[in-house]
Amino acid sequence: MRPGEKLKPMILNATNSKMLKSITGSPFLEDWVGVKVTVYVDKNVRFGKESVEGLRLSPARVSKPVLSPEKTQAWNNAKAAFKRDGNLDAVLARMDISPEHRRQLEQECSA
């Protein structure tokens, strides 16, 4: 949206329909209800012989919870996983952790 422009509905064109089909794994509109996506402006959409701006869809980014010592249960689970596996791969697949907290966790596990 641009300041001063009237709000218009987004028409689901063939390209964006294909993207939704790819995201949901289904060609049926009924299966697309409630699916979260990111809408962004692509400046290089072809319209005839011209390049124009167009709306495109991509899968919504899923943010992971952040691990910190204040989250006692998660912190203790992360320490147990580190002691078990010798690394934080399993933890990092589910949570984000700052470099300082990662060092702290590794120090606590080696003590």
Automatic annotation (TrEMBL):
Stated name of the protein: Uncharacterized protein
